[in-house]
Amino acid sequence: MAKKRSTFLLTMLSFGMAFLYIPMILLIIYSFNKNKIVPIWGGFSTKWYKVLFESEEIWQATALSLKIALVNATFAMLLGTLAGLALVRFGRFKGRTVFTGMITAPLVMPEVITGLSLLLLFITMQDLIGWPAQRGFTTITIAHITFSMAYVAVIIQSRLAGMGQDLEEAAQDLGAKPFRVLLDITFPLLAPGMLAGWLLAFTLSLDDLVIASFTTGPGSNTLPILIYSRVRLGLKPDINALATIIIVAVTIGVVIFGWLMLRQQKQRERDMHMAGQD
Amino acid sequence: MWRRLGEQLQSGWKVIVVLIPFIWLLLFFLAPFFMVLKISLAESVIASPPFKPLLQWVSDSAVSINIVFDNFLFIWEDSLYLDTYLNSIKISLISTILCLIIGYPIAYAIVRATPTAKNVFLLMVILPFWTSFLLRVYAWMGLLADQGTINNLLIWLGIIDEPIRMLYTEFAVYVGIVYTYLPFMILPLYANMEKLDINLLEAAADLGAKPMMTFLTVTLPLTVPGIIAGSLLVFIPATGEYVIPDLLGGGNVLMIGRVLYSEFNANTDWPVASAVAIVLLFLLVLPMMLYQHIQSRESES
pLDDT-derived band of residue B15, with 50, 70 and 90 as boundaries? Predict the structure, then answer.
């Protein structure tokens, strides 16, 4: 009976993984299709990569997207870390409920609402104080930071909750002032969480279409906006080539990151084991 | 002077740590909502910006107040909007249930796997989340099109003669939502199941419960928090989804995110678009608060 159930689980697992991966694999295969009509195979070719690399538009959009993602990730990491610290370590303070609400709401807020509300804010501010004079890099980055910092705060929150306060208390007992403790103990311990948050904020920004579409202005196309404007009208083989590059790059990144995490985890288990033997 | 500054930093840093993110969110998260609320109550005009100010100085001493509920009335009276809201909730709800049915056994299988396999499968579930959402939706355009992979395969196998219309139907929207949101269901379920005490299952088995019985009376009730968290993470964003109904549903599937977007961009009727957003927010506020409640309880424990 137990065996039967595990066969069922294994079948579901295989089907699930096939469901998740077959579409992406097909996307990659068709990027090497000579035929212009995407799903009909016309022989192997790398010409769509050439088309892609020769497109000035794609390069410009990629540069803009990367610029936004870098600035966004850095700011979101800093703001999110501060927010996470405030939520876990400061106990009750005035306005905590509003603060918690504002931190977690962007995680589940429908993108169309976030996008629309920020655009209306930017337009009103432009009317009142003349800033932002035009929409583009700055406005998209501000919008991205606002929702990315929520994700960073959640990561930092769970990391802080998991690591306990022993080391910080020890440092304090030895005479370190609270601010010193924050700089010398808490931040170094938080570094892996901050790195994870940075990476997440970076990808979230690169991936966002809806919020960027609302907050951008004429002439500022991010990569998702450009891709979207092309695929709306149908399948485009050069977009398959672009998708292949993105999927391969992400896979390499995730595998390396996963491998590092696994090694760290094994090392920690070994250390624990050694400590247990002493 | 530096010492003074240092001392002030010692005592005041906590306030600074709270204030920086607090002010940011106040400015760029809370204030924008009041903007939307404000404009949803404004009269729309053909101008730039396309709405009347709520307060207007008509002379030095008189202010005219232009608050109207026309936009909400308009949404209420036009059956198109009502149908679209209902249809969004229906599609989102069914997609959530499908994600749960598919995701639950997958999460359970991952929890039960050997440590190495567990890490590999987890990575495989997380990986699509890091690749482009837009491109994963695009992938299904190629699969579902009349000339697409699935139709070509079925015709080649001789199962069908004519291509089945799948792209630009509601079916395609379901496939798209389940496909892109499945990891959001699996991960909270996995996190919840991993904490499940295996001894309880063994105890149930020792006491003579059949596997099905154990599942229904022990496993399922204990994984309810994971089920709720995963379902909310799928249901809430899927209700306001824009990209999937637009790319896979074409003009044939009514979903509110798409209506809001076109109301704003194509019709430039900002007051109505704002009212649509406010109503959507009103519909989702309960599930959002529930999610927040679970999150804060999770972080406290």
Answer: confident
Adjacent-strand bridge partners of A33: A44
Cβ distance B166 to B207 under 8 Å? no
C-alpha to C-alpha distance for B120 and A233, rounded to whole angstroms: 37
Every domain of chain A and the residues it spans? 62-236
pLDDT in tens, A234-265: 888 999 999 999 999 989 988 888 888 778 87
A148 with A73: CB under 8 angstroms?
A: yes
Task: Please determine, for residue A38, whether its predicted confidence score (pLDDT) is greater than 80.
Answer: no
Measured in angstroms, the CA of A194 and the nearest CA of chain B are apart by: 16
Which uninterrupted H or E stretch holds B63?
Answer: strand B63-65
Domains of chain B: 78-268 (1.10.3720.10)
Look up the ipTM and state it.
0.88
Chain B positions touching A161 (Cβ under 8 A) are 299
Q: Tell me the residue length of chain B.
A: 301
Q: What Cα–Cα distance (Å) separates residue B30 from each residue in A199, B33, B37, B221, B250?
A: 26, 5, 11, 37, 33
pTM attached to this predicted model:
0.89
Q: Write out pLDDT tens, residues A3-15.
A: 455 788 899 999 9
Nearest to A210 by CA among B234, B13, B246, B163: B246
Residues B56 and A137: beta-carbon distance below 8 Å: no
Query: Out of A16, A111, A127, whose CB is closest to B242?
Result: A111
Structural domain A62-236, CATH architecture: Orthogonal Bundle (1.10)
By C-alpha distance, which of A179, A112, A226, A151 is closest to B277? A112
Query: Angle between the A137-163 and A56-89 helix axes, to the nearest 10 degrees?
Result: 40
Q: Which residues contact B254 (CB under 8 A, 6 or more apart)?
A: B80, B83, B84, B87, B88, B245
Per CB-CB distance under 8 Å, the chain B contacts of A242 are 135
